[in-house]
Amino acid sequence: MPDDAQVDHRVGRGTRAELISRLTEAIGSVTTPHPVRVAIDGPPAAGKTTLADELAVVLRAQGRDIIRASIDDFLVPLAQRYRRGRYSAEGCYFDAHDRAALCRVLLDPLGPGGDRRVRYMACDRDVPAGAVLLFDGVFLLRPELLDRWDLRVFVSVPFERTVGRALDRGRASPVSTAEIERSWRERYIPSQRLYFATARPADHADIIVYNDQLERPGWEVRSPVQPARTGSATPPGPVAERPPGRPGRSRRGRTL
After folding, report:
1. CA 111 to CA 138: how far, in whole Å?
2. Is 50 exceeded by the pLDDT of residue 253?
3. How far apart are CA 1 and CA 25, in angstroms?
4. pLDDT > 90 fraction of the chain, expressed in percent and rounded
5. In whole angstroms, what is the distance from residue 121 CA to residue 184 CA?
6. For the segment 164-190, what is each residue's pLDDT rounded down to a tens digit?
7. Mean pLDDT over all residues of the chain?
8. DSSP of 94-142, one letter per residue?
9. Which band of pLDDT confidence, cut at 50, 70 and 90, is reported for residue 223?
10. Distance in angstroms (rounded) separating the CA atoms of residues 161 and 243
11. Do β-strands 117-120 and 8-13 pair in parallel, antiparallel, or remain unpaired?
C-alpha cells in the first residue's frame, strides 16, 4: 500500500482521461519489492473491464510490464456454479469461481516471497518485480482475497443502472430481455447485496470510482491506505462490474 501514516481523502469528478491519470498515479505510488497486484472490483456491468483495459494501455505506454487477467478465467464448471440453482444468489457468490487456483497461479507467485513465475492461460513466464497485475472481476475484496491485493479499486454504479446496461448490451443477443432481467434481479444483484453485507468491500477500497456517468466519472482516493480499514462509508448505491455481452454471461461469453 502507499506508505504514509495519515489518511488523505480526495474526492473529485472529471473527464475519463482525468480518472485514468489519477489511477495510474495511484498505481505508480505503490512501492513493493514484488509486482503490484491491483484489484478492480465491482458488480456486473459497472465497467470494470473497460477501466482495466484503459489503464493497461496507459501503463504500457509508460513502460510498465502489464499482466491483464480476470475473475472470469477462474469460473468453475457450470454444474458446480448452478448446484444451488440457476438463480441462486448464494451460488453466484460462493460457488462460481476457483479462488484457490487464482491464488496459486497468480496472486501468491506475484506476492511477497513469490517466485514471480506466472502460469496463467497461455502465459508461462517470469515477470519483473516492477510489473503490474491488473485484475478485474466480482467479489475480489472478500476476506480470503483481501490481503493479496496491493491496491484495491472499487467501481460503483447503482444497481438499477447495471440492469439497464445489461439490457442494452443484450439487445443483439438471442436471450430474451425477460431472461436477462430475471438473471440480474434474482441472481446477480442479490449476490452483490450478500457480498456488501458480509464483506463490506467499499470499506476496504483504496479508491472508489463512481462510474454512473461513463464520460464524467467520479472518484474518491484514500491515500495512503491502511491494510485493514474499518468504518468507512459505503458508496452511494451498489456497484457494477464488467457487463456481459449476454445476460448472465461474462464479457468473454461465459455464464456466471
Report:
1. 21
2. no
3. 13
4. 73
5. 29
6. 998 888 777 788 889 999 999 999 999
7. 85
8. HHSB-HHHHIIIIITTTSTT---EEEETTEEEE--TT-EEEEEESSTTS
9. low
10. 11
11. unpaired
Q: Indicate if the pLDDT at residue 193 is higher than 70.
A: yes
What span, in angstroms and rounded, lies between the C-alpha atoms of 43 and 64? 28
| Residue 36 near residue 30, CB atoms below 8 Å | yes
Q: CA torsion 45→49→50→55, rounded to 10°?
A: 140
Alpha helices in the chain (DSSP H): 16-29, 48-61, 78-81, 89-95, 99-102, 143-146, 159-169, 177-183, 189-199
Q: According to the model, what pLDDT value does residue 13 have?
A: 93
The three cell numbers locating residue 215: 464520460
Per DSSP, 36 falls in state: E
DSSP 75-97: BPPHHHHTTT-TT-HHHHHHHSB
Q: Measuring CA to CA, which residue among 212, 217, 125 is closest to residue 164?
A: 212
Single-letter residue type at 166:
A
Cell of 251: 464479457
**Secondary structure class of 9 (helix, strand, coil):** strand
Separation CA 77–CA 46 (nearest Å): 25
Q: What is the reported pLDDT for 171?
A: 78
Closest CA to 198 of 142, 236, 238: 142
Instruction: Please give the Cα distance from 123 to 13 (Å, whole number).
Output: 37
Beta strand pairing call for 8-13 and 218-223:
antiparallel
